[in-house]
Amino acid sequence: MLSRVADSFYWVRRYLERAEHSARVILVHQRLTLDDPTNAVGRRLLAAVGEAPIGSSPRLELPNRAGVAGCVAAARDNARQIREQISSEMWEQLNSLYLGVRDAAHQEDGDAGSFMRSVIEGTHLFHGVTEATLTHGEGWHYMQLGRYIERATTTASMLEAYFPEPTTAEAAAKASIGEYAEWVGLLRACAAFEPYCRTYTADVTPERLIEFLLLNAECPRSVRFAADRIEDSLRAIARMHGREANGRPERFAGRLRAALNFGTIDEIMEGHLARYVASARKQCDQIHMALFQTYISYPIETALTR
Amino acid sequence: MASVSGGPAALSALFTGYTLGGYFDEMFEADGQPRPAYRALLARLLDLPVDDLRRRQREADAAFLQQGITFTVYGDKGGTERVFPYDLLPRILAHDEWDHISRGLSQRLLALNLFLKDVYTDGRILAEGVVPRELVITAQHYRREMRGLYHRADVRISVAGTDLVRLPDGSFAVLEDNLRVPSGVSYMLTNRQITKRVFPKLFTDYEIEPIDHYAQLLLGVLRALAPAQQSNPTIVVLTPGVFNSAYFEHAFLARQMGVELVEGRDLLVHDNIVYMRTTRGLQRVDVIYRRVDDDFLDPLAFRRDSSLGVPGLFNAYRAGNVAMANAIGTGVADDKAVYAYVPAIIRFYLSEEPILPNVPTYLLANDDDRAYALEHLDELVIKAVGESGGYGMLIGPHSTAAQRTEFRERILANPRNYIAQPTLALSGAPSFLDDGIEPRHVDLRPYVLCNGPDCTVVPGGLTRVALRRGSLVVNSSQGGGSKDTWVLSE
Question: For A152, B308, B326, B416, which has the most beta carbons within 10 A of its beta carbon?
Answer without folding.
Answer: A152
